[in-house]
Task: structure prediction
Amino acid sequence: MTSPANPALRARRLVLHLICVAVGALIVVPVWFGVIGGFKDNGQLSTNPLGLPDPWVPGNYTDIVTSGVFWRHLGNSLLIAVSSTLIVVGAGAMAAFVFARFAFRGREFLVTLFAVGLMFPFAVAILPLFVLLRGMGLLDNPLGVILPQAAFGLPITIIILRQFFRTIPGEVEEAATLDGCGPFGFFWRVLLPMARPALATVSVLAIVASWNNFMLPLVVFTDQGWWTLPLGVQAFQGQYSDDTARVLAYVVLSMVPALGFYAVAERQLIGGLAGSVKG
Amino acid sequence: MTRPSTVPDAGRGDVVTGPPGPDAARQRGHRPRPGRRRALAVFLTPSLTLFLLLVVAPIAVASYASLYKWNGFGLPENHVGLDNYTRALADPVFRGDLWRGFVLIVLSLTIQLPAALGLAMLLNQPLKGRGLYRLVFFAPYVLSEVTTAVLFTLVFSPNRGLGEVISRWLGAEAGAVFADPDTVLFAVFLVVSWKYFGLYMILFLAARQGIPRELHEAAVTDGAGAWQAFRHVTLPLLGPTIRIAVFLSVIGTIQLFDMVWVLTGGGPIHASETMAVTMFQYGFRRFEVGYASAISIVMFVLSLAFALVYQRVVLRRDTEGALTVQGDQR
Result:
């Protein structure tokens, strides 16, 4: 594609590459600083923040990996993300099915209600939510995070799935009905299997939202045994504020699952975000 | 996923896209549907219960609690009318929150979104390795705000961070950006942008790739330069996505909490505090739940008012868009 006969074009490409590399460096350098910083001691960090460690100090990472606290937080994050996602996708798919393929009085009102819900942030509801969860005895209980997260994830889930369900031709449903499928059978045996890509999209969005949530677990969990990774990272920074290298190692380890997930689910994530905006 | 208008019209089985009502219900009468009502109830109950109990009810409770002086324990009894609201509007910290929110929004719209748009256009070029660039640019979006904030606290930590290196380059004290009331808000903005510009870039890129190549080519054939083709062909066609991005950016800024809480806690001397941080301080640190609820409600009303006005004035032209879909009639 690059023809050497066209120097102007080549110069242009070079400039574009330089811009990309510069922006990429802004992203990669802080992360790189963290990754190699975790392999240094604090003396090395002061004298040599960017270069390779000399000598390599694996202790920061191995201490965390063998301590159990990190794995505990990771497990909690995982449990909460998976449970929230199952609930929000399950409940959201059922509602989206009804909104997409049934006509009934009040449907538009309900759809609007959920759409407006896109603008309800945790920050607005967090105080009364806290009082409510306290009243229900759900503080220091994972359900106290799982259920509200599922509830706040419903609007985007329903909107995306409803759009998708509406693209499935009516003939499919008629055929299913002739074969003796009721609405439940059609939903479970026909619609959901056909909607797998859309279900993957909303699941990825729900997992990322849950994984990164901070405010709700912050107020719900006082018991460290239930802390999720973001809480763990913040607390670790407070605990070892003098030991920069150790905190860097913890931050880097806490990034690994998110980046790994991104590597695997990039397509669904990007497709979902772009799709949810385009409709 | 952008084909709602192609769904068959009312009168065929359950696929009904027209306005709901008795007519639509009667048209399906050719098939006996004894379980329909039951199905409706079964399918809607889980989501409605969750949503009403955990999203709608808390907002209602907050608006009620905002009229009381209440520490959050027992029932609110000390009714103070609108005192919490007048107090907030007179409070220099809260007024500062509004101003800082405004500044952050202006910065996002004038720096972050144009930069994201520019990079999206760049990645639309046939560049070698652009898949890798895209992967890297978007990666920070999957990191949590907390992780990002802690990382940057350390990057700028005074003695051991990259801040030292940057300081040496600049000949100025870069490590102090978060400690200086004059620079802290801008520093917070930069970290927020670091995490979020990739999201907007991806949205713009997806929209750009949805524009048929012929349109651009036709403009160039007609003698338009690259900039003119962008300005008069590409940009207008990106309009709906840009308007959604502006919307997301404004709503996100109104609610900004995690990043600020971890980076600066709102300090020094409130110089980076946002509404959500003020609310959190009063609600969970000082137990002035009534006052904090009033701040929540102001945030909610601002978001809602912005959304409604924006939708009415700006988004109305865009016939499709998940955030704007309020019905099938349009």
User: Anything to note?
Assistant: The CA atoms of residues 21 and 108 of chain B lie 44 Å apart. Chain B is about 65% helix and 0% strand. The beta strands of chain B are 68-69, 78-79.
